Amino acid sequence: MPASFMTGSMLVVAIISINTGQMYMPRSIKVIAQIISGAYLGQQVSKQDVLQLPRLTKPILLLLLFFTLNMFVMGKIFSLFFHMDAITALLSCLTGGIMDISLISIDMGA
Question: Residue 58 belongs to what domain range?
Fold first, then answer.
């Protein structure tokens, strides 16, 4: 299971939060988590990666188009079949890291 340590932690926190209503994360902790996540991703970029960007423009734009279309189509299907609100349905179909999407979901109330 990908990211099992994060998935397990999220499940335990969700269960405790639902049962007791006692789980709370200060906004500053979310900001720190986003900073750490961004710094980790930023350190993975090399000069060679930046030099390759002009050659990769078309494939990147095509992928972004397909990811966006997939998110809207699958989000609409999720919303209709599972009776989710639009924000939750769209975010559940968004491609991205589990940590980043979870933080975005919390910020948007999904």
Answer: 4-108
